[in-house]
């Protein structure tokens, strides 16, 4: 007899997957993406109602990183957080936005209506943005990473100086990121399987 894990349990397994295994699985993809785009690229994950950075890659040119693994990303500011939260249940969105929302620059949005409008835009376009909202002169674009039977718990994005990022349109950058989504999804599924196998051996 075959058994299949329920959607909620699969989501919990991903939420509990070791960050190191995930980073190892997706690092080659992020490295290639960073070289192609020419700016820092990164992966983020939903944990509860918070979005946390998991892995990042800088292009071979050695430009600085704007994302540090393990840090929580603000739901009203970070493109990667918007790209995930836009597709969550009203309950998760409510929890995420009920906490104090930082205003790091004059462009940071703290008004609930404006933030929800950004989420709606992300759902329609399938990408989210952050222009001078986290740091003046720095921008980011992120796209959701859907997984079968799980939904959207991850996003991949790129961040850098706005002057550099505007050498392409938002849509062009989003298209490059979206082209890597399937490969990232395969890496995430592999990391999840390895985590379950390790847990089973330990048990």
Quick structural summary:
The chain is an alpha+beta fold. The chain is 47% helix and 21% strand.
Write up this protein:
With 203 residues, this protein is α+β, with helices and mostly antiparallel strands. It has eight helices and six strands; from the N terminus they run H-H-E-E-E-H-H-H-E-E-E-H-H-H. A hairpin with a 6-residue loop joins strand 4 and strand 5. Helix 2 runs antiparallel to helix 8. It is globular and about 40 Å long.
Question: Which properties best describe this structure?
Answer:
203 residues; alpha+beta; globular
* End-to-end distance: 22 Å
Structure class: alpha+beta
Mean pLDDT: 86
Residues in β-strands, percent: 15-25%
Number of DSSP helical runs:
8
Radius of gyration, whole Å: 17 Å
Residue runs with pLDDT of under 50 for 5 or more positions: 1-16, 195-203
Largest sheet: 6 strands, antiparallel
Spatial strand sequence of the major β-sheet: 3-2-1-6-5-4
Helices, strands, pairings?
Blueprint: H1 7-16, H2 19-37, E1 40-47, E2 50-57, E3 72-73, H3 79-85, H4 90-98, H5 112-125, E4 128-131, E5 138-147, E6 151-161, H6 162-165, H7 170-179, H8 181-202
Antiparallel strand pairs: 1-2, 1-6, 2-3, 4-5, 5-6
